[in-house]
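ok new one. same drill as before - structure tokens go in, u give me an amino acid for every spot. 159 of them this time. try not to just spam alanines like last time pls lmao
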């Protein structure tokens, strides 16, 4: 594993790299933003990534959603993302959840960070409530045309 992450270890040290292996994150949404984030985080050596999405691949989105290719139409996005992450980095466990956020939240899976990569305001509100009850930090990202936005929430900042 040290050789695989050699460049990162040079950047932030072996202790930090080992710490990444202990972290669990949940990525809500496996489309354009979610697939890109999960791919990058998986390659960095995060220990466990939970991909949550009930949606299926559509041909008109494949060009901007890096986890998918022609022939993936109709397949679940979370499942394809999880497979790709594990193929890319054998040191990461990727778990697919073919469901919406509310259904996933009922599974009561503890994670260290929630990443909201949806384009759905009601889901974002559910994530906020859930994260506060679990005292789990979360990040949302959104993209529209040539504009992007990101925000980090950590309840402990407000205590």
């Amino acid at each position: 594993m040290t050789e695989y992450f050699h460049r990162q270890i040079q950047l932030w040290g072996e202790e930090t790299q080992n710490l990444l292996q202990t972290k669990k994150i949940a990525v809500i949404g496996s489309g354009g933003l979610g697939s890109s984030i999960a791919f990058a985080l998986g390659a960095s050596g995060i220990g466990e990534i939970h991909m949550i999405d009930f949606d299926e691949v559509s041909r008109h989105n494949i060009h901007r959603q890096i986890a998918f290719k022609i022939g993936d139409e109709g397949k679940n996005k979370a499942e394809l993302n999880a497979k790709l992450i594990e193929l890319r980095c054998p040191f990461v466990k990727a778990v697919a959840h073919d469901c919406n956020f509310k259904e996933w939240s009922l599974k009561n899976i503890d994670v260290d960070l929630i990443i909201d990569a949806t384009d759905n305001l009601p889901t974002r509100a559910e994530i906020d409530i859930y994260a506060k009850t679990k005292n789990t930090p979360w990040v949302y990202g959104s993209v529209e045309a040539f504009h992007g936005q990101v925000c980090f929430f950590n309840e402990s900042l407000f205590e």
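The chain has a mean pLDDT of 93. and btw Residues 132 and 158 are 11 Å apart (CA to CA).
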